[in-house]
Amino acid sequence: MCGRFAFYSPSEATAALFGVKNVAPVEPRYNIAPTQYIAAIRDTEEKQRELTMLRWGLVPFWAKDPAIGNRMINARAETVAEKPSFRNAFKKRRCLILADGFYEWRKESSGKTPYFISPADGEPFAFAGLWEAWQDKSSEDTLETATIITTGATEFMEALHHRMPVILRSSTGLEWLQGSTDLLDRVAEITPKMRAWPVSRTVNNARNEGEDLLTPAGDELVEA
User: Fold this and answer.
1) Of 8, 127, 192, 204, which one has the greatest count of Cβ atoms within 10 A?
2) Pick from 139, 165, 158: which is nearest to 221 by CA?
């Protein structure tokens, strides 16, 4: 699962890694939560790659109520190609959701401890994502939303949670946008070496924001 993440690297430089240039700056965020807007890269109908802001929580085009998006922040890699809520977007509307790391809560004797997880080299990356456009029939306003693809945890991640988001770098990100059908079967191969460290439970409240949320509250775990 992925229910909270951070993106604070310069958006212009990060977008350039995925083939997008001359983008508007995106405000650094350290505690991004569902229903908030997230920075995503996608291909337009004119075959132009762009950086845009999408609301986190996918609303299928056929939905009667956009509130359904609150339950669709993640899509399982194992079933995304068949699920009615995601299969059309899987074929036609893929995106890359920019990030520097994400949070996961590990069950411990003292309760759930939040960990911040990121590539060991500290470089920004992208989650594999899908996007949709939903139109309000009464106002004709269009709402564009997105979901993050999750999969079974790697050996390193299993110590924290049994699932994890699909993490992409520049080459695999371009594969995703171009419609790769086997990328989700190669997660163990394409996931970079990761690191994680415990952080304050201040992050539990989505209203809290700021770089101090990343301050280590214990020893760092680094993938061998």
Assistant:
1) 127
2) 158
Domain hosting residue 194, numbered range: 5-222
DSSP string across 45-78: TTS-EEEEEEEES---TT-S-GGGGGG-SEEETT
Specify whether the CB–CB gap between 192 and 157 falls below 8 A.
no
Q: 119: which residues sit within 8 A by CB, 6+ positions away?
A: 101, 125, 167, 192, 193, 194, 195
Report residue 27 as tokens: 């405000």
**Known active-site residue 95:** no
**Residue 71 to residues 36, 47, 89, 146, 162, Cα–Cα distance (Å):** 13, 30, 16, 12, 19
CATH number (domain holding residue 167) = 3.90.1680.10
Q: Which residues lie below 8 Å from residue 138, measured CB to CB, with a gap of 6+?
A: none
Question: What's the predicted TM-score (pTM) here?
Answer: 0.96
Question: d(Cα 125, Cα 73) in Å, to the nearest integer?
Answer: 18
Asked about 104 being catalytic, the answer comes back as yes
How many structural domains is the chain composed of?
1
Please write the tens of the pLDDT for every residue from 177-211.
999 989 999 999 999 999 999 999 999 999 999 99
User: Which of 217, 193, 169 shows the shortest CA–CA distance to 19?
Assistant: 169
Within 10 angstroms of residue 58's Cβ, the number of other Cβ atoms is: 28
